[in-house]
Structures are given as C-alpha cells and as structure tokens.
C-alpha cells in the first residue's frame, strides 16, 4: 500500500468510525425508550429473560440504528486499524449523553460538559498518534494471524470466561452487579471485532476479483460474527433494562475498548510498528477519554453549573473565614446580634471539640 493510498484509506476509516458512533449513540436512547415503554405496560422485562421488546417499534428503530452504526463500523475496520476505530467509540458515549438529557430527562451538568470536552480531546490525540498502515492485507495473512499461539490462548480464555459468566455468575449476580452482563458483551466484542476485521479484508479482496468465497475462513468468520453479535445484543439489552443508560454506556465503552486493544495487540501486533511517542500518545488519549467519561457520568446527579460556580467560591471563602465574617456581620447588624453570637459560639464549640478542649463541654 503506497503512502497516498494509505492516507486515503485512513481518512475513509476515520469518517466511517465517527458516523458509526453517531448511529450507535442514538440507538442506546431508542432502545432504552422502547424498554421503558414496555415496563410501563407491565410486560416481562428483558432483564428477567423476557422478549416482549421484539414487539416494540422503538426497540426495532434502535436496533436498525445500531445496525447502521455497526455497518459503518464494519467498513471502518476494513480501511483503518482497530487501534483507531475502537477508541473512537467514545463519541457514541457523548451522543448518548447529550440525547439522554433531551429524551430521557437525564441532566448534563458542568462536569458532564467538561467530560465531553475531554473525551473529544482524547479522541483527537488518539487519531493523531494512531498507526496509519495496516499489516494484514489478505485472508491468507489473516489465517496465519488467527493461528498464532498467542491469539489461540487469548480466544480460548475469552470463551471460557464468557461461558462461566453466562451459566454460573449471570443467574446469581446478573440482576445486581452491572459488571456481569457488560463484561460478557465486552470480551465477546473483542472476538467480534477480529471477525469484522477479517471479513472487511475479505470484502476488499472480493472487490479486487479474488475468489474469497471459496476460502473457508470467510464463512468461519461470518458464522463466528453472527454468534458473537447475537450474544452481545442479548446481554446488552439485559444490562440496559436493569441499569441506568448513563452508567451502562461508559462502563461498556471502557471494558470493551480495553478488550479490543488487547486483542489487537495480540492478533495484529500493530503496536510493534508504532514509535514510542505514538504509543505514549495513544495511551494518553485513551486515559483522557476514560477521565472524560468518568466526569460525564460519575457526577451526573450533581446539580452544578457555571452559574453556581461564583456562589460555590463565596461559600468556600466564608467557610475559611467563617468566624471573622460572622463577628464582623454581628457588630454591624445589631438586629442579628443574638443569632450571630449563637452561631459564633457554636462554631467555637465545634472547633474546641475537634481540638480536644474540655472547655467545649
């Protein structure tokens, strides 16, 4: 691949990845609205194993939106490295958070806005430092990669962990622990990304006139992708039905992205061809995104805006100089002398107690 073609493919992959995030972020809202409507009707909830959501048009709209996003995401993997495409999923978190504030009555406060900004900055840093050349170009190369002992061990561990979570941990703790269902989606998602990457290469070879349909790996990857995606949809629905969207989305992003980056490092070994500053930049961007997502959702119930900032600073100043300010106010407002003195005495009493003084008693 020449340098000009590589940059062209990189830009196509970047645009597709961003479009994918918009569709997927919107799909969370549509599916959640559909599940909430079913809950109000008294139907058996998805978290309890029900499938009434299959009759809800809003849920289907969300599924179609997610499908469009996944198609764009699928195509993005064919043009750009997984190290770039997967972390840009943070944009779907931003879309989900913004739309949640409009359609699910979930507030986006100052912390959330700062989190959005940090996530965008982190994504930009990752785009700048992401590898711009692909190592795997054909299905034969992909076949050799999949047969690598390191990836075989990784895939085996993922399958074993997923089966334990599905059949042992899930029935016991899935309703109370948010990590159970999300972990199932995330670790299986790492395998689905590998399948998507391989199928993307197959499609590019198909358009180039190569007989990829006769290659058994194409059908193995397609079947594996169907199984992985079906499992992801099932358990993501359960997590969305039981827990708040603003909690599910960021946790899913962090675990899923970490799983994919790990899988990419083992399978495609893209990191071996990156300079030290690019590796540091990629990790820094990813950590910045995580901090942004944390701010976006950890303080979502705190009603804090820019308008509250001056008031908050004044309160901090009053707390630091509380006794002096209270005394000054008392001597300048005779009508409030008694309450102020009482407040001063109370403050001094509390201070004395903290210092272990017996005079406080």
Automatic annotation (TrEMBL):
GO MF: magnesium ion transmembrane transporter activity
Topology in the lipid bilayer: Multi-pass membrane protein
Segments crossing the lipid bilayer: 12-30, 57-79, 85-104, 111-130, 150-171, 178-203, 215-235, 247-267, 279-299
Database matches in Pfam families: Mg_trans_NIPA
InterPro entries named among the record's database cross-references: EmrE-like, Mg_trans_NIPA
Keywords, comma-separated and alphabetical: Membrane, Transmembrane, Transmembrane helix
Principal location: membrane
GO cellular component terms, A-Z: membrane
Entry-linked Gene3D superfamilies: 1.10.3730.20
Highest taxon above the source species: Eukaryota
Subcellular location: Membrane
PANTHER family linked to this entry: MAGNESIUM TRANSPORTER NIPA2, PTHR12570
Family: Belongs to the NIPA family.
UniProt-recorded name of the protein: Magnesium transporter NIPA2
Lineage: Eukaryota, Metazoa, Chordata, Craniata, Vertebrata
């Amino acid at each position: 691949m020449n340098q000009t073609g590589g940059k062209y493919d990189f830009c196509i992959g970047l645009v597709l990845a961003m479009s994918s995030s918009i569709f997927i972020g919107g799909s969370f809202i549509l599916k959640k609205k559909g599940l909430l409507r079913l809950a109000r009707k008294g139907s058996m909830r998805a978290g309890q194993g029900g499938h009434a959501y299959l009759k809800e048009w809003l849920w289907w709209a969300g599924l179609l939106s997610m499908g469009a996003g996944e198609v764009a995401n699928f195509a993005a993997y064919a043009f750009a490295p997984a190290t770039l495409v997967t972390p840009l999923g943070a944009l779907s978190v931003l879309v989900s958070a913004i739309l949640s504030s409009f359609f699910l009555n979930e507030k986006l406060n100052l912390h959330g806005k700062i989190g959005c900004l940090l996530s965008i900055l982190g994504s930009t840093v990752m785009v700048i430092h992401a590898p711009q050349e692909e190592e795997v170009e054909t299905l034969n190369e992909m076949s050799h990669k999949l047969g690598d002992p390191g990836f075989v061990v990784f895939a085996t561990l993922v399958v074993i962990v997923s089966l334990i979570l599905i059949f042992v941990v899930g029935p016991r703790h899935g309703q109370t622990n948010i990590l159970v269902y999300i972990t199932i989606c995330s670790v299986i998602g790492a395998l689905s990304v590998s399948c998507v990457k391989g199928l993307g290469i197959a499609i590019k070879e198909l358009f180039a006139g190569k007989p990829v349909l006769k290659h058994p790996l194409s059908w193995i990857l397609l079947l594996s992708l169907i199984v992985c995606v079906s499992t992801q949809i099932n358990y993501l629905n359960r997590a969305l039905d039981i827990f708040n969207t603003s909690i599910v989305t960021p946790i899913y992003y962090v675990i899923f992205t970490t799983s994919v980056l790990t899988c990419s490092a083992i399978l495609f070994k893209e990191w071996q061809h990156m300079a030290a500053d690019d590796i540091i930049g990629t990790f820094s961007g990813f950590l910045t995104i995580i901090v942004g997502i944390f701010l976006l959702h950890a303080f979502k119930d705190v009603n804090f805006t820019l308008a509250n900032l001056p008031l908050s600073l004044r309160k901090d100043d009053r707390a630091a100089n509380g006794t002096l300010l209270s005394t000054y106010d008392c001597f300048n407002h005779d009508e409030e002398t008694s309450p102020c003195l009482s407040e001063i005495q109370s403050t001094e009493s509390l201070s004395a107690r903290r210092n272990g003084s017996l005079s406080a008693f």
